[in-house]
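Weekly structure sync, notes
Attendees: PL (lead), two postdocs, one rotation student
Agenda item 3: pending single-chain targets
PL asked that the sequence for the first pending target be pasted directly into the notes so everyone works from the same version. It is reproduced below exactly as submitted, 160 residues in total.
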Amino acid sequence: MHVTNVHKRTIKQPKNKVAALLKTLSTEHDKVWPKDNWPAMRFKNGLKLGAKGGHGIIRYSVEEYILGELIVFKFSKPIGFNGVHKFEIKAIDAKSTEVKHSIVMKTEGLATLKWIFVIRWLHDALIENAFDTIENNFSEAQKITRWSVWVRIWRYILTR
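Predicted structure, written out during the meeting:
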């Protein structure tokens, strides 16, 4: 099955400020990943080209890294996830930046069912929470995207 899954959010900050946050991804002082509610993104030797790591059961390596613009991760697990996911940031104007996360992959076998019924829902909630984390670095009013019932059910099942 071909999968294209895209999330975008406009952050009302100049690109250089959002890019500075993206540099913290997977570090001890990560200002992007919602690690309080989701498995942390980790890389054994830090986030750099060729690094291997992931979050939870999802494993990948850094295939492309353009500081302050783009990070492309190539899936290695689950088996049957053939493709990439990526973070991109681009200036909309001097005061606004678009943050974009995309998955472009083909699934095979059991991975297709895992994607359709479980991972897609959890992934969508995680990415929206990551965008909340980015936005909340610049705002006193903390944004928290609510999880769907389906996400809450899967989180309950998977944490038991």
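Discussion points:
- Residues 2-158 form a domain with the Alpha-D-Glucose-1,6-Bisphosphate; Chain A, domain 4 fold (CATH 3.30.530.20).
- The mean pLDDT is 96.
Action: rotation student to compare against the earlier draft before next sync.
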